[in-house]
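Supplementary notes (optional reading)

For those who missed the lab, this is the record we used. Protein: DNA-binding transcriptional regulator, XRE-family HTH domain. Length: 131 residues.
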Amino acid sequence: MDTMEVIIEKIKEYRKKKGFSHENMADELNISQAAYSKIEKNETKLTVDRLYQIAEILETPVYDLLDVTPNNIYNQQNFYDASVGYQDIQNLYQENKDKTEKIESLYEERLKDKDKMIEQLQSVINTLNTK
């Protein structure tokens, strides 16, 4: 089984654990059910962005879908053109950095919303206590 097949099997496994159908996944990804089915059949190329979207929908870290653990260390030597591999790594780093910053921003917004809600509830409590 090649790497992509392993990833797709992991996606299927996590989707089934969540009780999601192909239709659910397709709706969440804003694609047709047929398009999603092609992803799970490995008939359509799975992009990094799509993998991140799927991981978010399944509420699981991407590394779980990739079956990567700290014990899995891969060493690669590029003898033909090291700059190509370096550029790929830099692109992946930037994409991950952008996604992390977005997640942090959303988290900060949620914290602010929580603080506002606490203030509102405290105000209601104070109003009820003065009556």
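If you only remember one thing from this example: The two ends are 70 Å apart (CA to CA).
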